[in-house]
Specification:
9-stranded mixed β-sheet, 21 strands, 12-stranded parallel β-sheet, 2 helices, about 210 residues, UDP N-Acetylglucosamine Acyltransferase, domain 1
Length: about 210
C-alpha cells in the first residue's frame, strides 16, 4: 500500500473524506488546502463556503454539522464537532485565530439539547470556545480567548452598523461565561471578574444614535 493509499484508508476509517474527495468539493466549496482539511462524511457544506487550511468538521454518531452558503471558516484553525447534537453555521465568519465549536449530546442527567446555532453575519474569532447549548444570533460576536456555554446572544445588525444599540450581542475577553442571555446592543466582557451585562454604547459613547429602530 502506498503512503497516499494508507492516508486515504486512515481517513475513511475515521469517518472523513479523502484529500481527493475534499478537493472534489470545488468549485462549489472553496477549500484552500484540501490536504490539511478534515471533513466528516455526513457533514453538509453548501456552495459558496470558504474553508481555510487546518479546518476540522466532524460529526459522530447521530451528530450533524451543516455549514450554510457564504460562511467563511478561517483563517486560523477552526474545529467543529457534533456528537449526538447539531451544529448549524449560517453565513458567518469563524476566524481569524483559533475557533472551536463543540456540541455533545445531552448528558444522562437529562439536561436537554446541546445544539449550537450560529446566525448570518455572526463573527467568532481570537481563540474562542463555544460549547452547546448555544444560540449565537445574526450579527452577534464572540471575540477573544473566552469560553461560552448555555448562552443566547440576541440577533441584530452586524458589527459594521454605526449604531451599537442595533448590533447583535457581544461576548468578548477571557475566561468562562456561562448561562447569559443577551439582547441586541448588549455586551459581556470576560476578565478576572466577568462584567455584568453592559450596553455596547458604553464602549462607544460617541457613536451615532438612530431613533425609531
Amino acid at each position: 500500500m502506498t503512503p497516499a493509499h494508507a492516508l486515504d484508508a486512515a481517513r475513511r476509517a475515521a469517518g472523513f473524506l479523502t484529500p481527493d474527495e475534499v478537493a472534489a468539493l470545488a468549485p462549489d466549496v472553496l477549500v484552500l488546502d484540501p490536504a490539511s482539511v478534515l471533513v466528516g462524511r455526513s457533514v453538509v457544506i453548501e456552495p459558496g463556503v470558504v474553508v481555510y487550511p487546518g479546518a476540522v468538521l466532524e460529526s459522530r454518531g447521530t451528530g450533524t454539522v451543516v455549514v450554510r452558503a457564504g460562511a467563511r471558516l478561517g483563517p486560523g484553525p477552526v474545529t467543529v464537532l457534533a456528537k449526538g447534537s447539531r451544529v448549524e453555521i449560517g453565513r458567518a465568519e469563524l476566524g481569524p485565530g483559533p475557533v472551536t465549536v463543540v456540541a455533545v449530546g445531552a448528558a444522562s442527567s437529562g439536561s436537554g439539547s446541546a445544539d449550537v446555532e450560529i446566525g448570518a453575519d455572526a463573527r467568532l474569532s481570537g481563540g474562542c470556545f463555544v460549547e452547546g447549548p448555544a444560540t449565537i444570533g445574526a450579527g452577534a460576536q464572540v471575540i477573544g480567548t473566552v469560553s461560552i456555554r448555555d448562552v443566547v446572544l440576541g440577533a441584530g445588525a452586524d458589527r459594521h452598523d454605526p449604531d451599537p444599540d442595533r448590533r447583535g450581542a457581544v461576548v468578548k475577553g477571557t475566561g468562562r461565561i456561562h448561562g447569559v442571555r443577551l439582547g441586541a446592543g448588549d455586551v459581556v466582557v470576560g476578565r478576572a471578574t466577568v462584567s455584568g451585562v453592559e450596553r455596547q454604547r458604553a464602549h462607544h459613547p460617541d457613536a451615532p444614535r438612530f431613533t425609531g429602530t
